[in-house]
Design goal:
InterPro entries: FKBP6/shu (IPR042282), TPR-like_helical_dom_sf (IPR011990), TPR_2 (IPR013105), TPR_rpt (IPR019734). This protein is mostly helical and about 200 residues long. The chain has nine helices and no strands. Helix 7 runs antiparallel to helix 8 and helix 8 runs antiparallel to helix 9.
């Protein structure tokens, strides 16, 4: 419970909060440990391998990375995601459910690394992250992975290869606006290039 003077004061915030004394109830749903990554390095090796420890650390790193991404601090977000992969590689899951959770977190980390490297225009790094993802899951069935393969090859100037990946992604999500837009842009580029080549040789 919080007294009005510690919240919105006696004036309130009309019309939602009345301009008169009232008590406010604040519920705390989650706490993110901003220093979980740093603390993890100080733990004994046996502790670092525990599933509960690794997943808690990784979830904290991923939460912080999302905030950094929103602030366009992509390089720092990349470091956090890279650390989360290292932490997950140490994890020793004890059953099938724990194995599935570790796999899910690794997929999340590599995909987000691909997104971050796209933002700082490092297409070869994007491809490397997606190739790492290939060892964990079938990227041919993963729309987001196929889309960022396309983005990477587009940045490298390999237009036809980019179109192939965009088309694969669009098959999985036919109503995806971003994929459709990327394909239209490349189709337009190819058509204009063909016209230029024809005019050159006339």
């Amino acid at each position: 419970l919080i007294q009005p003077k510690a919240a919105w004061g006696p004036l309130g915030v009309p019309p939602r909060i009345r301009p008169e004394p009232a008590l406010f109830v604040v519920a705390l749903y989650a706490v993110r440990d901003a220093y979980a990554g740093a603390r993890f390095n100080d733990l004994p090796s046996e502790e670092q391998r525990k599933f509960e420890v690794t997943t808690r650390t990784v979830n904290s790193l991923h939460g912080h990375s999302k905030e950094l991404f929103k602030k366009k601090r992509y390089t720092k977000a990349i470091r956090n995601y890279q650390q989360s992969v290292s932490v997950l590689n140490l994890s020793r899951p004890q059953n099938k459910d724990e194995e599935i959770e570790v796999k899910r977190l690794k997929i999340n980390a590599f995909l987000n690394l691909a997104v971050c490297f796209t933002k700082i225009e490092k297409p070869k790094h994007v491809i490397r992250m997606l190739e790492c993802l290939d060892y964990i899951t079938d990227t041919e069935k993963h729309c987001k992975a196929l889309f960022y393969y396309g983005k990477a090859y587009e940045m490298l100037g390999k237009t036809e290869l980019a179109i192939q990946y965009y088309q694969k992604a669009l098959k999985l999500e036919p109503k995806n606006i971003d994929i459709g837009k990327a394909l239209n842009n490349l189709d337009g580029y190819l058509k204009s290039s063909e016209v230029e080549v024809k005019e050159m040789w006339q």
